[in-house]
Every structure is written in C-alpha cells, then in structure tokens.
Automatic annotation (TrEMBL):
Domain Radical SAM core: 82-312
InterPro entries, A to Z: Aldolase_TIM, Elp3/MiaA/NifB-like_rSAM, GDGT/MA_synthase, Methyltransferase_Class_D, rSAM, rSAM_sf, Zn_ribbon_HMPTM
Coiled coil (UniProt feature): none
Originating species: Methanohalophilus mahii (strain ATCC 35705 / DSM 5219 / SLP)
Protein name: Radical SAM domain protein
Length: 492
C-alpha cells in the first residue's frame, strides 16, 4: 500500500518498511541488516484502512519549531520543522511515582529507587512553552505520570494552567486517591480541572486481577461517585484493550458509561502498545487494533453501534477550516494520521443507543463545509453569503424522525459553524457520549509517517515538545535520566 520508514525492534535503528495488504489485513514488513525480518499487523481490516485513508489532511505544523531536525525523525523530536500537526493535547508527566504497580504500564512507572519529578517551576515553564506555540497555542493540557495525584501540589498546577489560558485541563489517573479523598477531588475541581481520564479496563473483577494485579473495580466506581459529589462533571473512561483479556467487554463498558452520562462523557479505548513492562513475545496473541474494536463493538451490540458509525480523527478538519475562514483566526486542526485514531458519538434515549450516523449525513456535512471553504475569499460579504448557503443546507442533512428528541441537532450544528465557540461545542458533548480509540505505536508497528503527524505531545523539562509515540519508545528514559533525583521515602 505504501513504503515508509520504521525502526528495528531490537536495535532501534531506522530501517525501510512496507505497509501491504495480505488476506484482508494490512501488515508492516521490515528487515534489519543485523537482526533480520519482522512482520506485524498494522491494521486488521484492509477495507476500513482504505476508508480511513480517504480522510487524510495535511497540516502545517508549528511556525516556531524548537529543534532543527538535523538528526532526523524520530531523534530530532522537539518539535522539528518536519512535524505536520500542532499540539492538540499536551501531556506533562509530573512524576514517575505511582500508588499502583500495573504490569501493562507503558510508562513503566516506578515506585522506588530514583524518581523523575519536575519542580513546580519547571512545570510552569513547560506550560508557557506550550502556550507560545505558533500559529496556534496549545489549548489542552493533561497532567500525567506515573500517577499525578500522588503530588499534593497538583491543584496548584491546574490553577497555573488555567491562569495561562488553557481551555481544557485534564488529569490521567488510576482513581485511587480520588476514591479515598473526596476533599482532594474538590480541590482539583476548584482549581479549574475540567476532565478526568480514568483508567478503566472493564466491568469484571477477574479482568482487573489479570491486568492490574488486584480487583480495582470498586475503586473505579468510588472514584466516579466522588467526582460526581465533588462537582467534576466530565470523566473519560480509558480502557487498555488486550486481546483475550478484556476485548469481550466492549459493549458492557459502553453500557456502564451510558448509565452514568451525568458525569461520564466519553470512552477512549486504547489498544495495548507493547512498551514498558509488557513481554514482547506476547504481542502475537495480544495484539489488538482499531478495526478489532470497531468490529467487536458492532458484534457485541448486535449492530447498535455499527462499523459505519466510525471515522478517523482528521475527518473533522473541514469543520475547523471553515470556521477559520469565517472568523479569520487560527484554530487547532486535527491533521493527525488517519490510522492513529477513530471516533464516533452516541446518544441515549429511552435506553436505546443512537449513533450520530443514524440521523446525520456526516459525510455530506463534511463535504458541504469542505466545498464552502474553497469559496471563501476573506471578504466579509462573500463569507456571509457562503455561511448563509451552508446554514440553508444543514437541515437537509438531518433526519429529524431518527434524531434524539433531547437535542435540536440542526440548531446545534448551525451554532457551531456560525460561532465556533467552546461553549456551543460543549453543549453537544453534554448531550452525547464520545467514543474514541487511539492506538499508540510500539517498536513493532512504528511508522514515521504517523509520528510526524502526531497531535498528542509531551512537554519536557529540557524545553522540548515530543510526539507521544516517539517519546515512549525513544525519549522517555533519556528525558527522565536528565532529571532523576533520590526517592523521598516520606512522599505520598
């Protein structure tokens, strides 16, 4: 299907690779002169691969890169001039300490010995670098780790991010402290926290026994209850999917979320990446790709969440570009690689799941905006004429009979493209359940074409901004090694 560059899983040298179709699947093949040939499943369904490929959009990256790129991808990450997507979501690892010891931890979080823990000042400096990105300052930040809640000054970090203008502030957590300490949850909310990304691997005790080494389900449920009581109204469940372990619970996870729509606003499925502690030899039996999720969920919901409901992340780029053209200002553009992630929206009415594709011609909507953007020329009159034409066409794309009665979909879509305001989009999210998937890469399926389009980045204390997959496969040990310090035995 295409040639690219990858890495040898043994020595990490950059080598040529081919992505090709075989028996309905898409595979990656590569050969290292020293360590031989490797073949890995890239995407498990070739038809879905081609559908997603249609929606690739080229981004322009940042106009103020922080590294030269002379060492080549992925060694020059920082961001370099070759990177094509701005920072859509930034991660800052505030510690590598953790109050759990999960065998599938991709960060290989440590609980003893030496620790990586940036100072508050270093974290503030990283936040400022992200806000200085041009032409679009990073607007979304996630404090992660390790386990970020082991730091008592986490609320102060959240408050600083709010002061610096981040419009979406998140933490990625296992929920242990929040389940035990509702006062801390209130501090997070009062500081300005918007969303909690809660690791959530399923609804069965045995799943947690295998994946987390103990039954963590009661902790997850208590954390959700405490968030509700503390006033935190946006939780995203984050299941790490491992074939043969929890891929039989996809529909049950969806139902768990739809029963708690007052606080659970999304699910971000993450097929396991073979980094950190995971035994590389397990990959053949445990590899799980985005098409496996899409097909598995369709089967387990008996078609209630069909394959056709899913689209790649860059599918929405025409929305941003149309609003940019109307408003005359830069907006974040989700120009990530089309095979990095997938998403859909589900509505619930009378215990029935209604995918957005059941009542909205989403492809027609995107095509309408894409064509209208080409007709924008910067003059106010011309832009208003094009906006009016789009507004007239939108009702034709909505099937009101099939649409949920709890939301005026036509009005919401019109408001989004006319105003593009965060609050208007938030209203949409409050009425629906976002279901997404991000498949982070490992050394076996590593594709440099994907890396240079990555939109999820890590900010580091040495002043760099590094794409997620290259950070976790190449740069984590290097970065943490620069800032290690003795472990404080009295730290919580």
């Amino acid at each position: 299907m295409h040639n690219t560059k990858s890495v040898c899983p043994e020595c990490k040298k950059i080598i040529e690779a081919t992505v090709f179709e075989n028996n309905g699947r898409v595979l990656m093949g590569k050969e290292c002169p020293e360590h031989g040939k490797f073949e890995e499943v890239y995407w498990s369904d070739a038809n879905l691969y081609r559908k997603f490929q249609k929606y690739q959009h080229e981004g322009t990256g940042v106009s103020n890169p922080l590294t030269s790129g002379d060492a080549g991808c992925p060694l020059s990450c920082g961001l370099c001039p070759s990177h094509k997507t701005t920072t859509l979501l930034a991660n800052i690892d505030v510690t590598n300490r953790c109050n759990l010891n999960c065998p599938i931890c991709f960060a290989n979080a440590k609980t003893r010995g030496f620790i990586y823990e940036p100072s508050f000042q270093q974290i503030e400096d990283m936040l400022k670098i992200l806000r200085e990105e041009k032409p679009t300052p990073c607007a979304a930040i996630q404090f992660s780790g390790g386990e970020p809640t082991v730091r008592d000054d986490l609320p102060a970090m959240i408050q600083k991010a709010k002061e610096l203008g981040f419009v979406q502030i998140q933490i990625a957590t296992n929920g242990v402290r929040i389940a035990k300490d509702i006062a801390f949850a209130r501090k997070l909310k009062n500081a300005g926290l918007h969303t909690i990304y809660l690791s959530f691997d399923g609804v069965k005790e045995e799943t947690y026994q295998k994946i987390r080494n103990f039954n963590a389900l009661p902790i997850k449920k208590k954390a959700i209850d405490n968030c509700r009581e503390a006033g935190i109204q946006s939780i995203v469940l984050v299941p790490t999917l491992v074939k043969g372990e929890n891929d039989d619970q996809l529909a049950e996870i969806i139902r768990f979320a739809t029963d708690k729509l007052d606080v659970v606003k999304g699910i971000n499925f993450q097929p396991v990446a073979f980094t950190g502690r995971i035994d590389r030899q397990s990959r053949e039996k445990q590899r799980f790709t985005i098409p496996d999720l899409i097909k598995g969920l369709a089967d387990q919901t008996y078609g209630e969440v069909p394959e056709k409901a899913w689209y790649p992340i860059p599918f929405v780029v025409p929305i941003s570009r149309f609003i940019e053209g109307i408003q005359g200002k830069y907006l974040p553009e989700f120009t990530v690689h089309p095979h990095c992630g997938a998403a859909t929206y589900l509505f619930v009415e009378k215990d029935r799941i209604i995918p957005i594709t059941d009542f909205l011609d989403v492809e027609g909507f995107i095509e309408l905006l894409d064509n209208a953007t080409k007709d924008l020329n910067g003059t106010k009159t011309r832009n208003l004429i094009n906006l009016a034409r789009v507004v007239r066409e939108i009702p034709k794309l909505v099937d009101q009979e099939k649409a949920p009665k709890s939301i005026n979909v036509t009005k919401m879509l019109i408001n989004i493209i006319k105003e593009g305001e965060k609050e208007v989009a938030s209203q949409f999210h409050r009425k629906s359940l976002f279901v997404g998937a991000m498949h982070f890469q490992d050394l076996y399926n590593f594709d440099l074409e994907r890396v240079c389009r990555c939109g999820i980045h890590y900010a580091t204390p040495d002043g760099r901004i590094i794409p997620f997959c290259s950070y976790n496969t190449f740069h984590r040990d290097e970065v943490e090694g620069q800032f290690l310090k003795p472990y404080n035995l009295n730290a919580k």
